[in-house]
Amino acid sequence: MSLILAIDTSFGTSVALVENGQVRAEHNVPDTMKHAELIGVAIADVLAQAFVQPAQLMAVVAGRGPAPFTGLRVGIAAATMFAAGVGVKLYGAVSLDAIALAALRTHRASKEEPLLVTADARRKEVYWALYAGLDEHGVPIRIDGPGVMKPDELEDYLVNRNVHPTTTSAEISAANLALLVEAQLRAGTAGEDVSALYLRAADAVEPKAKIGKAVSG
Amino acid sequence: MTEIKLLPAGEQYIDQMMALEHECFGRDAWTEESMRFEMLADHTRYFVLLEEETVRGYAGLSKLPSTNQADVQTIAVAPNLRGRGFGRKLLEKLLTEANHLGATEIFLEVRADNPVAQNLYASLGFEHIDTRKRYYQPDDVDAWIMRARLSEGSLREPIVLGIESSCDETGIGIVRGNTLLANVISSSMDQHARFGGVVPEIAARAHLEALQPTLIQALHDAKLSMQDIDAIAVTNGPGLAGALMVGVGAAKALSVASGKPIYAVNHLVGHVGVDVLEGELELPTIALLVSGGHTSLLLVKDLLDDVTLLGETIDDAAGEAFDKVARLLGLSYPGGPAIDKAASGGDPKAIRFPRGLTLPKDMEKHRYDFSFSGLKTAVARWVEVAENNGDDFSVADVAASFREAVADVLTAKAVAACNEHGIKRLLLGGGVVANARLRELAAERCVANGIELRIPELNLCTDNGAMIAALGAQLVMAGRAPSSLDFGVDSTLSVETVHTK
Questions:
Q1: What is the third-level CATH fold of A3-187?
Q2: CATH number at residue B49
Q3: What is the pLDDT of residues B85-108, one digit of tens each?
Q4: What is the pLDDT of residue A127?
Q5: Which chain A residue's Cα is nearest to B196?
Q6: Do both B61 and B172 map to the same domain?
Q7: CB within 8 A of B426, min separation 6: which ones?
């Protein structure tokens, strides 16, 4: 009973079933739209591929982003309700950390030469975070971020800090998200916070108290 | 006589129930503590008979999960209402409920010296099976034990959980057939107040945060767990796309998690279908749906198969007009209640604001359509001129005159639709129905035109999950196929698509 269902919609729609370090099933659609259409089929598909009943799960994991708003919420909503519907534990994890986990299997990184993970934030901006390698439990050590900046601002920021990282902008996979939480559970650092990491305020402008004057002006 | 309703008992009725308890049972009355304990226990179901907001009777049963036997714990009807079938109505409800809970037998005790009650029970299938000697003290009266057998599953109606997230209310409701079991609404209204209107991104963020607690509360209120749910229903349009996606993602996950079918349903038709929870939905009907997001006039011949859009707003929704005018008058958000309050004491005839799309040339093309943008501008200009002239005008008069213009055009077109289609029934829905003047004018004009007016309870008029569950239950009971798991949201979904397959 250590099956983890992970759902991440910070990029495309990605759902995976992982058990003790093994990926039992995956369903990835790299379409940055249509999350609401795809999510149900994706979850049903990984359960069916692995012949797993929802009640057999140990936990559900939601990818918290950061990500542009609309799609991200679909996955978090689905993970939250799936966990509530089955009555299992719900964890949240930073999606960039899962990308780092995958990259740090092949790249070495240190405080001096960290790994920079970036992801498209639209509006000509990127989400980013810096990692100094893996800790003894295999959890990526995030030393800065997550943040959102324009690419040239980020470059200036890193130069000013005298950081010259290797960069990855690999796509997030829910399988890596589940493996990340397995490592965090070993380390005792898995988090229950599933709030979305928007990193930007909602677009909304407060109106003037009265609009009367403006009508014929 | 006013209508008497039968509803699940809640703590808000306990004072009234206790007063009735003392009146009906005297020395045998329960204490308030035991009444509350029994009423709120997981293994019990209590119902009240309500006339307006006054409790006229109640009844409760107990059914432990470990047995297939249920017990009638209490039944009381106000003395002045006895002999009119209310005791029977309560008892029938308990029998239905016991059956739903899986009981195959139901027991009760009755005083041996109460033949009226014994006859009622006997007429509902209870038999006298045993006697407890001198059970009622100090009167020294025997108790009859009576038992009725319940046929297994014969009364099974589907339990449907509905999720609504099309605008700024996260609603989760649960119904059993046409019976409301829970209706929990979490609104993000306060967060929109400083923007003077619903901000889609803020609404969507709030849905995500509200979903899980709303689900837990709805299951708690209905005294059910996810295993008891037979189907999930969810709004997939019309509404704010980002907001709808949160509900749809959530509903699909619940469907897969519970292995139960999912029904994607139309928000606007939900506003009509909700009336099944308030008694019989009589069809055909004209329906006027007025909210912050919609102003639509529908012709409903069949709830599931024949809904036609007669007209809708061509610019702002009526609720939006209230919000905007409230803002220019310096009143609070949401504008509906603020304008209602400001209008009290005002003269609705003080200023003749325009009635949108009522001129003959407009009526040709837009007979049942609405427009509130011009009205809003007219109010703004009027205020501007008055201020520029330094006139000391009455906000109450402006508010009352504006409100009158909205209520007038809404009800005039709705009543015209009834008359011209020969349908003498009008159903109101949507949050703007909370507006006192709209209700009043609708009632007046319906009476004058011989039209039967239906207005569901306010918390069923505003956006809610119960209406989505109710429409879902209609689809289940009609044997309709569930939606496939890959349906999407449609922010402009047509009312003719009641159910997205």
A1: Nucleotidyltransferase; domain 5 (3.30.420)
A2: 3.40.630.30
A3: 888 889 989 998 888 888 889 999
A4: 96
A5: A207
A6: no
A7: B285, B286, B287, B288, B414, B415, B418, B442, B446, B451, B452, B453, B454
For residue B442, being part of any structural domain is answered with yes
Name which of A5, A37, A81 to mutate to probe chain B: the one with the most chain B Cβ atoms within 10 A of its Cβ: A81
Task: Tell me if B253 and A43 make a contact (CB, 8 A cut-off).
Answer: yes
CA distances from B445 to B297, B414, B441 (A): 16, 10, 6
When CB atoms are compared, the residue of B205, B250, B383 closest to A81 is: B250
**Residues in A touching B215 (Cβ below 8 Å):** 81, 84
Nearest CB to A202: which of B205, B209, B262?
B205
One domain for residues B489 and B448: no
Distance of CA B174 to the CA centre of its chain: 11
CA distance B64 to B61: 10
The tokens for B88 are 């029977």
B82 and B128, same domain (yes or no): yes
Whether B105 and B185 share a structural domain: no
Choosing from B107, B128, B149, the residue where a domain stops is B149
Which of B129, B149, B169 corresponds to the end of one domain? B149
- Among B245, B324, B491, B493, the strongest candidate for a mutation testing the A interface, having the largest count of A CBs within 10 A, is B245
Let me know: does B2 contact B51? Beta carbons within 8 Å. yes
Q: pLDDT digit string (tens) for B368-418?
A: 999 999 999 999 999 999 999 998 899 999 999 999 999 999 999 999 999
Nearest to A202 among B199, B251, B258 (CB): B199
Residue B135: which domain range? Answer: 4-149
The pTM (predicted TM-score) of the whole model is 0.82
Q: How many CB pairs under 8 A join A and B?
A: 146
